[in-house]
Amino acid sequence: MILAHWSDGDCKIAGCNAVDLTPRPGQIEKLLLHNLFVNGKMCLHLIAKVIWFTELDESLKNMYGKPVEVWRSDSFEREGPAVFIPVQRIKSKFVYAYKTIKSKKVIIVCPRDRYLV
Q: Which domain of life is it from (predicted)?
């Protein structure tokens, strides 16, 4: 489980001018090791394939107060370019709990403020 400033909510890669730069929670599906030759040297890149959780409305999303957030646990963003993220762009891991609130299955997310890489 990770948090990253990567997906814009429509599974497109968020630009640097994005209005909301809140990190989104996601779950790593698999890791891909990519080898490239650049100027005669082998460069390794580690890329994660992530499924991103979808947002709830603001009243539910922030019901526990910052930094804890509530996201849908039974719905994910559709496939798109943002499912692939270089591991260097992952902000942190998070602790989580599953719950049902107002008949919606949710995941409660609290960031671990320690960077992965």
A: Eukaryota
Q: Can you count the helices (H) and strands (E) in the chain? A: 1, 7
Burial class (CB in 10 A: 0-12, 13-18, 19+), 61: middle
Q: What is the pTM of this model?
A: 0.82
- Long-range (24+ apart) CB contacts under 8 A made by 12-20 are 12/80, 12/81, 12/82, 13/81, 13/82, 14/82
Per-residue pLDDT reduced to its tens digit, 45-101: 999 999 999 988 888 998 998 889 999 999 888 888 889 999 998 888 999 999 999
Contacts of 9 (CB under 8 A, 6+ apart): 20, 24, 54, 55, 77
Phi, psi of 80 (to 5 degrees): 180, -175
Domains contained in the chain, number:
1
Q: Residue 7: which domain range?
A: 2-115
How far is it, in rounded angstroms, from Cα 109 to Cα 117? 20
